[in-house]
Amino acid sequence: MRVYLDNAATTPIAPEVFECMIPYLQNEFGNPSSTHFYGRQAKAVIENSRRSIAKHLNCNPAEIIFTSGGTEADNMALHTSIEALGVKRIITSAIEHHAIGHTAEYLAKHENVELVHVKIDSKGNVDLNDLENLLQKDIKTLVSLMHANNEISTLLPLDKVSALCKKYNAYFHSDTVQTMGHYQFDLQKTPIDFLTCAAHKFHGPKGIGFLFVNKMLKVEALIHGGAQERGLRGGTENLYGIAGLAKAMDLAYEDVIGHQNHVQALKSHMIESLHQHFDDIYFHGETNPEKSLYTVLNCSFPKTDKAGMLLFTLDLKGIACSGGSACSSGAVKGSHVLEGIKADGTRPNLRFSFSRYTTKAEIDYAVEQLVTVFSKTLV
Ligand SMILES: Cc1ncc(COP(=O)(O)O)c(C=O)c1O
Fold first, then answer.
1. Is 151 in contact with 338 (CB distance < 8 Å)?
2. Is 321 a catalytic residue?
């Protein structure tokens, strides 16, 4: 049996998304910038996709800029805030994805910009009082805080942070890579300046995403070149990716509450089963469903002398999960997120992440195998 529990790293493409992309890899292959039939046909696919995505977020289609995915969109938000909006300070946290963390560090080093980390608690919650204190300083600021942490699942109260940023006139970017397609967004109700999306986190293709940019902002390109995306992102558009992204989003929002209920039930079931089988287990980040991304469960297991072999052993048993953030998997380096919340570094951590295709039988198999593996290795 093979069980895929690494959906925060990437999700399988939905069959409907795959089907929808095929024509653009075959006959409808035109370059959207061409003025002939093929080009116009391709252009229409892109603009229809943009409109349909905007509808899901209750925003204007012109506010969607297609990118190669989450990392590029995060980079664009940070760079353009400094280069076009005149931001002089970035407030972020120590547990952001590297697409934000490393970009912010780069900008602090190479541009005249101050980098500040807001306080977080041991579950990864942002200290909103500290954020408000920081925002009182009179300096043009961008707040970049992720909506859900990809490793420990803790959710940011977007509406509260949005209100604080409004109150103190700061720009607000949220990395919504793990939540787009999983939660409903209404950008008229919760005003945000920048949002980031990656299609492969909700059963769309890899290599495509977008940056939402509030239409009031005059931003500039990160990737310079042709006039694509109204001059804001040069390069021939990823036609089949864009069509796949729009389709994945349609499917995600067709029954988003149904998906949430299904996946949250699996997560709760896994927590309960693990508690039944392991006396000494706890979970990083929030587990309260109100405050926790329902697709991610980060477990702190009892100490074992075989900790370094855990992922490998589970892989041999057919279970795909992650030891931290899978985006950096391959690099055997401690997780900056677990470090950021001062997690006990001597205990093994495993992240399990679920999708709407995950079944209860798969969770039961995974728990069964975990019990076997740990019963042989506990010290
Ligand atoms: C929170 C978060 N931001 C950004 C990214 C990067 O997205 P992409 O892989 O599309 O570049 C990831 C990927 O895992 C992520 O989890």
1. yes
2. no
